[in-house]
């Protein structure tokens, strides 16, 4: 697994690869814009070239993008839905400009699950038309009316998009909080994922320990080994040969030293076969 962290794009996206290298990343995740704002300026050629050069210079295996939290492709409100789709298309275009393959998004929320799944799928279909990035659906903790807490919901969205350039980001904290016991029954959970979604559709991991207990629906990340999941859970993930070429991204809280410490912990769990 290519281990890394979510890094800042402050001042310029082109600075992100060096920030990742500074804390020991093998892969990075970024926002391509201010995630708290709808609008963003276009990415210029100089910034895009600087980012590409930084990726090459640092030897990072991959950069993953994460879409803005403002976007809700499942919204029953037409104005918000249209705004979300427009913003998501723009984010995919920004990924194309940067040469980023994977764009992670929280699927969306809707009290009517069936309607939510349909609207999310339609938003993704519109985004895929004319862009090149792969849309990566993140598993959610199941708080409120968020869709993505069950593998069947993820699969339902993918089926409605014919699985064209649509993949999955497995967030360890979210999965545990939503009720999947990856600590006590890792093999069973992976088998269920494979049966429901398809293990070949796993493209990104978010490696976060959990402050919440199993099935708590609490979306609170914790440092590796200090939460309910414990280090042995992460040992299973980082050594699973099925995921050897997949980026595993930290989203824990703190500064650069905190990221470096957590990355060192994950790297120490690797086994030599």
Protein architecture, described:
The chain has nine helices and twelve strands. Helix 3 runs parallel beside helix 4. The mean pLDDT is 96. Strand 3, helix 3 and strand 4 form a beta-alpha-beta unit. It has a single domain, classed as Alpha-Beta Barrel (TIM Barrel), CATH 3.20.20. The strands form three sheets. Strands 1-2-3-4-6-8-9-12 form an eight-stranded parallel barrel, surrounded by four helices. By secondary structure, the chain is of the alpha/beta class.
SSE topology sketch:
Blueprint: E1 2-6, H1 16-22, E2 27-30, H2 45-58, E3 62-66, H3 78-98, E4 102-105, E5 108-109, H4 113-128, E6 134-138, E7 146-147, H5 151-160, E8 166-171, H6 172-178, H7 186-196, E9 202-206, E10 209-210, E11 221-222, H8 230-238, E12 247-250, H9 256-268
Parallel strand pairs: 1-2, 1-12, 2-3, 3-4, 4-6, 6-8, 8-9, 9-12
Antiparallel strand pairs: 5-7, 10-11
Helix pairs in contact: 1-2, 3-4, 4-5
Tally of individual helices: 9
The level 1 CATH classification is: Alpha Beta
Mean pLDDT: 96
Radius of gyration using CA atoms only: 18 Å
The total number of structural domains is 1
Residue share in helices?
A: 25-40%
| Uncertain stretches | none
Q: Which architecture name does CATH use?
A: Alpha-Beta Barrel
Shape: globular
Cα separation of the termini? 14 Å
How does the major sheet shape up?
A: 8 strands, parallel, barrel
CATH superfamily: Divalent-metal-dependent TIM barrel enzymes
């Amino acid at each position: 697994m290519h281990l890394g962290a979510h890094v800042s794009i402050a001042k310029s996206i082109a600075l992100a690869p060096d920030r990742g290298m500074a804390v020991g990343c093998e892969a990075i995740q970024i926002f391509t814009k201010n995630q708290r704002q709808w609008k963003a300026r276009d990415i210029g050629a100089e910034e895009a070239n600087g980012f590409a050069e930084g990726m090459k210079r640092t030897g990072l295996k991959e950069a993953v993008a994460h879409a803005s939290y403002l976007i809700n492709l499942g919204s029953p409100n037409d104005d918000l839905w249209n705004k979300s789709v427009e913003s998501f298309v723009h984010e995919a275009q920004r990924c194309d400009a940067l040469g980023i393959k994977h764009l992670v998004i929280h699927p969306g929320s809707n009290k009517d699950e069936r309607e939510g799944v349909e609207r999310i799928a339609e938003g993704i279909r519109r985004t895929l038309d004319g862009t090149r990035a792969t849309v990566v659906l993140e598993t959610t903790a199941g708080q409120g009316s968020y869709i993505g807490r069950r593998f069947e919901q993820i699969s339902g969205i993918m089926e409605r998009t014919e699985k064209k350039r649509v993949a999955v980001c497995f967030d360890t904290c979210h999965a545990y909080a939503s009720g999947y016991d990856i600590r006590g029954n890792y093999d069973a959970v992976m088998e269920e994922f494979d049966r429901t979604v398809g293990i070949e559709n796993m493209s990104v991991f978010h490696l976060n320990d959990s402050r919440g207990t199993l099935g708590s629906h609490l979306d609170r990340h914790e440092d590796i080994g200090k939460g309910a999941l414990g280090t042995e859970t992460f040992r299973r993930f980082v050594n699973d040969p099925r995921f050897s070429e997949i980026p595993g991204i930290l989203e824990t809280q703190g500064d650069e030293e905190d990221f470096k410490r957590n990355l060192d912990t994950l790297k120490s769990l690797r086994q030599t076969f």
